[in-house]
Automatic annotation (TrEMBL):
DNA-dependent ATPase and ATP-dependent 5'-3' DNA helicase. Has no activity on blunt DNA or DNA with 3'-overhangs, requires at least 10 bases of 5'-ssDNA for helicase activity. GO terms for molecular function: 5'-3' DNA helicase activity; ATP binding; DNA binding; hydrolase activity; single-stranded DNA helicase activity. Its EC number is 5.6.2.3. Residues 348-539 form the AAA+ ATPase domain. This is ATP-dependent RecD2 DNA helicase. It comes from Companilactobacillus suantsaicola. It is an enzyme of class 5 (isomerase). HAMAP family: RecD2 (MF_01488). ATP binds at residues 359-363. It catalyses: ATP + H2O = ADP + phosphate + H(+). Belongs to the RecD family. RecD2 subfamily.
Amino acid sequence: MAMASDKQYFVGTVKAIFFENPENLFKIFTIKIKKTNTDWDASDIVVTGSFGEISEEEEYRFEGHMVDHPKYGKQFQADSYKRSLPNGRKELISFFSSSEFPGIGKKKAEKIVDELGNNAIEKILQDPNALDFLKLGEEKTKAIVEQISANHQTEQVLYQLNNFGFGTTLSARIFQKYGVQTLEKLTEDPYQLVLDVKGVGFKRADELAKKLGITGDDPRRIKGALIQMVSLMINETGDTYVSGTELIKRVSSVLNANSTPDLDKKLLDGLKKLVNDGAFLVEDGRVYDKTLSDSEWSIAQSLKMITDTFKEVPFSLKALRKELKHIERDFKVQYDQSQQKAIEQSLTHPIFLLTGGPGTGKTTIINAIVSAYAKLNDATLDPSSEDYAIALAAPTGRAAKHMGESTGLPAMTIHRLLGLTGTEDDEYAEPTLDCKLLIIDEMSMVDTKLFRTLIDAVQPGTQVVLVGDKDQLPSVGPGQVFSDLINSAAFPTTILKEIHRQDEDSTIIQLAHDINEGIVDETIFQNKADRSFIGCNSRNVPDVLSQIINKSSDKGFDIADVQVLAPMYRGQAGIDNLNVVIQNVVNPMKPKRKEVSIGNTNYRINDKVVYLVNSPEQNVFNGEIGKIIGILLAKENTDHVDKLVIDFDGNEVTLDRKDWVNISLAYCTSIHKAQGSEFEMVILPLVNEESRMLRRNLLYTAVTRSKRLLIMVGDRSAFERSIKDQSNERQTTLKERIFTTFKIKQKPAEETNDEEKPVQDYRLTLDMIMNNSISPMIGMENVTPFDFMKKRA
Ligand SMILES: Nc1ncnc2c1ncn2[C@@H]1O[C@H](COP(=O)(O)OP(=O)(O)OP(=O)(O)O)[C@@H](O)[C@H]1O
């Protein structure tokens, strides 16, 4: 494995490792230089990169390039490294007689070098019997050989990964997954990476495969492309399965192996293999990632279990109605008929669904349910009591906070309730919930996998109340759980329609309801006390926005209360550009101001930022908005790393530079991200260039984020188009799983909207699959839906 000679290198002894990130093996340390082909003339240099084991006082050779870090000055960024093997007689003797090899003294060490020469280490690595002549006994010899190879395997693997073209971060991730077996695994099947290692897509694996001589219609290549394409298509659409025909069409084009005879047959064989391996499930021409299919089944089963184990309530309807009267008196409210029905049903059924637009009283009902539940079941409302058995949760921190404030009881994110970490480990988590009443708010945001984990955790005898607005955007992750549950008609459901929010001047809520009804008329664009429309094209959006924001600050609006919401990241009117534009208006760079940069983004004190992942340990979650309150430069702190201090609604979080990828500017955020949050003033630019994204539920979700003022900006037709376009239904089979599990006879096709859906796709695939004698229920033989209960693949 000769190293390319044109690369810059340093050979030297590691002196001090002053930073290590166990997550990705990133390290920073200084070395005492022995040799280099650079013009660096000091005796030491700082080296950075991802490394396996690095030991102080050991000698290594690092290859990479010099970088000029704005804060730390010149450093060497290593993209490969190799422990220098001791190669002189003297060094080898001292190596073998070191404390690493107990039982070998100087004499034996000399003997090894005499016998095996200066390549002693390589020889031992190649031939585990090379030390037999020492007659140390089998066990001792084995221990020495293992020690030598363990010392060198990590470096070798990482070095080889680097030769394969993986950068340091990916190499580290791959090594973490496969360990010392990495090279074996990769040569066996490079496409397994697509399934096993986040960040490796088909293209990447394909490059590696090519180097290993795996090309064309190799079954491993076909498998990799199928896995990648299913995941890509699911992410694109939010569906829980993909159409087999479409999948095969797209995979054929990715493989670019048109000359292959019988490519379709080979693709179907690949599909069959993935089904047999338990990664996919094929049913009626639909192809599922098995975990999603299992999730749908498991949800249906858990709901059935909750329903079946529910015992009669310990109170009469009469007592319930009497209690409601008390609550009406206490809360000074008179529930309308639907609200009353909602409260009654929720208290007397195992599972209850409540949906309604803004201001229809969802929060009001949650309060009533909690209060009546406690009274009628003689349950405590004291969270510190051992008997307290009410769990309130929502998918976002903000929504949970709102729930907590309105009920006066503890409410938390679903992740926190379940003890999830927001990482890949969640997929294997099987928590249990020992509450008696579970209420979830903002249910429309809960995706299939999260809902599976949640509902699987519920114990027999628990009452479950799911509250949300079914007309909002569905979850970011696959599925449309809340709509599917409602549409299954398997559970008592109340749809709240009456708007109760009494605000003389408010027309926003009415507008939201009109949008939801599909009403397209002039009133949308009329200027009212609490909303207005400013027509302009995408080029003018940044300028118009700057003016609005300047005006809003003149009128006393704090930028924290003003939220710009947009559908897309790209383009003049896209999120990325608008963030920079607004930042320069409200928080411009001035001489002597502190500023730090990462990628194309600059951060300054007072900048509004959004958190992009879930970090339960820091109590900050995806979508939470905060403000930068401090910038600590590396030279100013003892850790020698740049830090940002961010205030997320009273929770101060310090983020090291390496974590800045988890935030972005938040003057403008996506409408998806804003789900579950409300803002005093919303500015909503929509332009025709975004037509691919414009749907009624997107506009509806955006408009309903605004509490006091709404300013719509952009192309009139973009708004009109949004209201008209309802083509947002996701393809899922949760409803069907519920029908099967609950033994509900499915409605005839004409009653559903099937004619609008591209059914033809599945039929075609079904034919292909049948012709190729793959059973449509392949992988499902001898499996009943009950097998999906709790058990995870
Ligand atoms: N039956 C009622 N009579 C009078 N006022 C009501 C009634 N129901 C709800 N309200 C009031 O209407 C307003 C909106 O109710 P609530 O906040 O419960 O609605 P919501 O559906 O949770 O709205 P959002 O989703 O926008 O928060 C509140 O001020 C509430 O007190």
